[in-house]
Amino acid sequence: MADPKGFMTTPRQEWPRRPVEERVRDWNEVYVPGALLPIVNRQADRCMDCGVPFCHEACPLGNLIPEWNDLVSRDDWRQAADRLHATNNFPEFTGRLCPAPCEAGCVLAINQPAVTIKNVEAAIADRAWELGLTPPRPPERLSGRTVAVVGSGPTGLAAAQQLTRAGHTVAVYERDDRLGGLMRYGIPEFKMEKHHLERRIEQMRAEGTKFRTSTAVGRDVGAAELRTRYDAVVIATGATAWRELPVPGRELDGIHQAMEYLPLANRVCEGDIESSPVSAAGKHVVIVGGGDTGADCLGTAVRQRPASVTQLDIYAQPGAERDEDAEPWPTYPKIYRLSAAHEEARDLRTAPAASADARLFAASTLRFTGDGGGHVRSLHLVEVDAARRPLPGTGRTLPADLVLLALGFSGPDRGDGLIDQLGLQMEPRGTIRRDAGFATSVPGVFAAGDAARGQSLIVWAIAEGRAVAAAVDRHLTGSSQLPAPIGPFDRPMVV
């Protein structure tokens, strides 16, 4: 604890964002380059080095937050990077994409703004790359055992890196043409520039991990063949089966799933196509769904210069402060948050009908109507109460030339045949069934991440990858020194 009075003398200061008018003209990250390091030391000083650091419990990775806060406050970047990477394979991912449940669990957050843990984490990760503190760590010897990891999202990459470093020969299979899963084609460039992903993949290649892109297991490679070729298989395909909106007019042209829309924008940034065939340019856009994916659609649409863009959230607008009765500290509270995309939409006034930034809260879609050509032109909605019951007299209509459905995901996509070919047992909610050791109903096959847990956060995905790696290592060798931060049935803190 470098400054015992830091939490009393230093106010919370976050990584500043670039001006809205500037950043919506490009696809670069929204933050001011180089503006974090000048403030991060004093922000780390605000950490109280609590006797019982609840931030550890709030973070499924068990990040050693007080330790690296203290090291950052003293400019000891080498030790800080070591302590951070001891629990997290990809801190530059979580430092940009995680909603920071650790900050909700910060003891300072009981009656003050929490320590900017997420910003400190990002600063350590970036500084470690700048100083050359993240060299490849190939194993000293090989075990002679082989593992196939299906899926290259955060779970698959974390599992593969841990197993490679333990000495196993690992091949990662990815059905897309590039690695990264939803981090590649689901997360917009303005939230995380893809060079962060590329350099981690290159680090893993240098360590010995093999990658097979454009290879859908179950279609391009038989699942049974994979099972016989490798000593163990890890299924980390994510939860990519999107939820539908079964209302009249859904069949109209111009209504797309978020994951049909977002990858095209990312492919423009990758240089694969000149412009997206599903663009918001000049259109009245309505996004159905109030979560992070909806916000990603919002920020993407704003950059494509729409006529208007509105986001519908079926939940009531949350308050600015934690409800201590319903969501007491240190649980992660549902409060009103202003993402970079919502800030942009608010300042640019993209949604004249919205009451808060671009969002209409407590709004449920009733139906769509279209023109004579079968293209959507309007969305009909109604306000709802806390039980999602329509409120009489609250119906309204929004112009809609493009509708984006961002309603979340129900489980792994079964279209490639992987699950059925292996004969895996499934949970009633659509996820892969597994036991306390991450093992599925098929010997030698393990499941981790959203494919088994269900839709969750990136920090949980990485924790799952690290934990399943320990389980696979134990299965192959009889014991394991790899860390297992969570169990398959662990859940975030709730009341």
UniProtKB/TrEMBL annotation:
Keyword Nuclease: no
Keywords: Amino-acid biosynthesis, Glutamate biosynthesis, Oxidoreductase
All copies of domain 4Fe-4S ferredoxin-type, residue ranges: 36-69
PANTHER family: GLUTAMATE SYNTHASE [NADPH] SMALL CHAIN
Pathway listed: Amino-acid biosynthesis
Name of the featured protein: Glutamate synthase subunit beta
Domain of life of the source: Bacteria
Cross-referenced Gene3D superfamilies: Alpha-helical ferredoxin (1.10.1060.10), FAD/NAD(P)-binding domain (3.50.50.60)
NCBIfam families assigned: GOGAT_sm_gam
UniProt cross-references to InterPro entries, sorted A to Z: 4Fe4S_Fe-S-bd (IPR017896), DPD_II (IPR028261), FAD/NAD-bd_sf (IPR036188), FAD/NAD-binding_dom (IPR023753), Glut_synth_ssu1 (IPR006005), Glutamate_Synthase (IPR051394), Helical_ferredxn (IPR009051)
Keyword Acetylation: no
